[in-house]
Design goal:
Blueprint (H helix, E strand, L loop, with lengths): L12 E5 L3 H13 L3 E5 L2 H11 L3 E5 L7 H10 L6 E5 L4 H9 L4 E4 L4 H16 L9 E4 L2 E4 L4 E4 L2 E2 L4 H12 L4 E3 H9 L7 H15 L9 E4 L3 E4 L2
Parallel strand pairs: 1-2, 1-3, 3-4, 4-5
Antiparallel strand pairs: 6-7, 7-8, 8-9, 10-12, 11-12
Length: 238
């Protein structure tokens, strides 16, 4: 008799980077039970290797790690153009760690102690968001003015010269291109690009937009492409 029970496919691959063995086991068992394929790493160097080898869909990254910190792991991945979604775990509860992690390219953070339900909810939300980031409506590359952005290769040029674009700036540009001609609020940018609810940090959006304008606009003070819509947000014209 043939067993016709459907085979459940994993929700995705999660890499857990945590040096506390009991915490690592609890997270591994929890995400395994929830239907995820789980990989583990116990220090920063091991984490970098694991990302390259297992190509996870999401990384849960502790800040305090042996060898190199979670912050440096995040920084190195983004510097290499790797945009794997990252949720950082911090036990410090200090605002500076959270802000620094987000500036370095993390998508979200959770402060210890946390509930497993909270963490899985954030993981599911981030995976849903990133799954639709490079949708069929988004081109692999896009040109506007003298700027060419290759989203597939994670690079851009202006007048043929290489642009030093961060992973976050590429995500901003990808979202602007997908929704060009429409107003995107700061909260929407935070939700879709940063992936967290941070009303006090809406100034973070303005800071990143200002830096991005300096790279792509001929006159950053009088932009032609990333237009400020007073009291609402930004609109991309290209």
């Amino acid at each position: 008799m043939v067993d016709k029970t459907p085979i459940e496919t994993p929700k995705g691959t999660v890499l857990i980077v945590e040096d506390d063995e009991s915490m690592a086991i609890a997270l591994r068992d929890g995400f395994g039970f929830e239907g995820y394929e789980v990989r583990s790493a116990h220090d920063g160097l091991e984490a970098l290797n694991a990302v390259q080898e297992s190509r996870p869909d999401l990384v849960i990254l502790d800040v305090m790690l042996p060898k190199i910190s979670g912050l440096e792991v995040c920084q190195r991945l983004r510097a290499d153009g790797n945009d794997v979604p990252i949720i950082m775990l911090t036990a410090r509860g200090q605002e500076v760690d959270k802000v620094l992690g987000l500036k370095l390219g993390a998508d979200d953070y959770v402060t210890k102690p946390f509930s497993f339900l909270e963490l899985t909810t954030r993981v599911e939300a981030l995976l849903r968001r990133t799954a639709g980031t490079m949708s069929s409506s988004a081109p692999d590359s896009f040109e506007f003015g003298d700027v060419m952005i290759d989203f597939k290769a994670h690079r851009g040029t202006k007048n043929g010269q290489e642009l030093d674009l961060t992973a976050r700036e590429l995500r901003l540009l990808e979202l602007f291109v997908r929704r060009r001609g429409t107003v995107i609020t700061r909260d929407q940018l935070l939700d879709e690009v940063w992936g967290y609810d941070a009303i006090p940090f809406t100034r973070t959006v303005d800071s990143h937009i200002a830096k991005l304008r300096k790279k792509i606009e001929d006159q950053p003070s009088a932009p032609r492409h990333i237009i400020t819509v007073h009291r609402l947000g930004y609109k991309f014209v290209g």
